[in-house]
């Protein structure tokens, strides 16, 4: 009898180990490396500016340094706005040349150990450079009507825009400026970015529609990118090892549809993530988890919303709830080490939009 009882007890213990939640992870909770559970978005305090404010760009170099740019509304016009993240808190920087003068700040880039920022200073264009010795400025060789975009890498920087003679592509090589020619048929350059001094990209409006151009160290040429028919380009991400991702909108019978066009070094592939037709991919970044992240229009007035696109799979997450908020708009994202930083605006009921920042992970 004692032997039979021992067998029964063993069988019961074995069965319990099979059905117990501690004994096996159900498939629904299994996690792959790129789907690791991350902490939720948290709010970061930002010193207020003079509303209404506009955010231009955000860039990070690791978890302890990030810069956000834009402009605020002063009584006599626009004023440049610059904020710095030190890994713990946001603070406002007013030490750069022209900080108290009319103008605005645009794209911010890290070039070696320096920070480079495009500055419209009372209509005149210049590049602000911050090194260990402090701030300096590199003026543009000519004044443009429109300063459309700016990018910089070690050994080169570009500013694109227009003046009374038409399209302008200005290149800085560290010692001086040259004016570059665009291919025939290019009407306007919407944006520019670069991987190296001899590998830059621009997206353009041409007499046959949208196109992507590439600088190979000698000339700007049509990159022959197979953009979807009747589409435009919002942004282009050149990444290491030859990968390139383009985001934009495609129009069918007047209805917009977001697309992503990816190049893996061999071929281009198009996907249409389930995003609203008016979604802009301009702030899209590659996150620390390897997926693409971008802010999207939120269906909750008191919370921001973000999309995560990982191949064919798109998921969404919300920022922290904000009391009495009626509009929360992340404007720019940046990878900061193992975290994502967001910078944008929040409108609290009864007041004008002011600055907000959020962080995921880290």
Q: How would you characterize the overall build of this protein?
A:
5% of the residues lie in helices and 55% in strands. Strand 10 and strand 11 (156-163) form a beta hairpin. The strands form seven sheets. Strands 1-28-27-26 form a four-stranded antiparallel beta sheet, with no helix packed on it. The longest helix is centred in the first third of the chain and has 18 residues, at 2-19. The N and C termini lie far apart (60 Å). The protein has one helix spanning 2-19; strands at 41-44, 54-60, 66-74, 77-85, 90-92, 103-111, 114-121, 124-131, 134-139, 146-153, 156-163, 166-172, 177-180, 186-196, 199-206, 209-215, 220-222, 231-238, 244-252, 255-263, 268-271, 285-286, 292-296, 305-310, 313-318, 325-336, 339-348, 354-361. Residues 1-38 have low confidence and may be disordered.
Contiguous low-pLDDT stretches (5 residues minimum) are 1-38
The number of helical segments is 1
Question: Could you report the average pLDDT, rounded to the nearest whole number?
Answer: 90
Order of helices and strands: HEEEEEEEEEEEEEEEEEEEEEEEEEEEE
- Describe the main β-sheet briefly: 4 strands, antiparallel
**What is the rounded Rg?**
24 Å
Nutshell version of this structure?
The protein has 362 residues and is mainly β.
């Amino acid at each position: 009898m004692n032997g039979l009882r021992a067998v029964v007890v063993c069988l019961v213990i074995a069965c319990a180990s099979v059905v117990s939640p501690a004994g096996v992870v159900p498939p629904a909770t299994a996690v792959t490396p790129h789907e690791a559970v991350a902490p939720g978005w948290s709010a970061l305090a930002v010193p207020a500016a003079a509303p209404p404010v506009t955010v231009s760009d955000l860039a990070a170099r690791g978890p302890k340094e990030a810069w956000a740019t834009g402009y605020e509304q002063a009584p006599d016009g626009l004023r440049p706005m610059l904020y710095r993240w030190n890994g713990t808190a946001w603070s406002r920087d007013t030490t750069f040349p022209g900080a108290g003068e009319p103008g605005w700040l645009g794209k911010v880039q890290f070039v070696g150990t320096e920070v480079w920022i495009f500055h419209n200073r009372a209509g005149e264009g210049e590049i602000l450079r911050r090194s260990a010795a402090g701030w300096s400025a590199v003026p543009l060789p000519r004044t443009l009507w429109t300063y459309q975009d700016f990018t910089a890498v070690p050994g080169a920087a570009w500013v694109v825009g227009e003046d009374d003679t038409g399209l302008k592509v200005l290149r800085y090589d560290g010692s001086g400026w040259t004016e570059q020619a665009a291919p025939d048929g290019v009407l306007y350059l919407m944006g520019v970015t670069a991987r190296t001094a001899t590998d830059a990209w621009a997206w353009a409006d041409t007499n046959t529609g949208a196109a992507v151009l590439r600088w190979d160290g000698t000339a700007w040429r049509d990159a022959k990118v197979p953009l979807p028919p009747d589409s435009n380009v919002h942004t282009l991400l050149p990444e290491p090892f030859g990968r390139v991702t383009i985001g934009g909108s495609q129009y069918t019978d007047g209805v917009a549809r977001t697309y992503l066009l990816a190049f893996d070094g061999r071929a281009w592939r198009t996907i249409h993530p389930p995003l609203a037709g008016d979604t802009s991919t301009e702030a899209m970044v590659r996150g620390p988890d390897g997926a693409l992240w971008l802010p999207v229009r939120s269906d909750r007035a008191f919370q921001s919303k973000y999309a995560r696109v990982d191949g064919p799979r798109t998921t969404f997450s919300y920022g922290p709830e904000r009391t009495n908020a009626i509009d929360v708009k992340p404007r720019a994202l940046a990878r900061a080490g193992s975290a994502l930083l967001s910078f944008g605006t929040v409108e609290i009921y009864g007041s004008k939009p002011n600055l907000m920042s959020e962080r995921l992970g880290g």
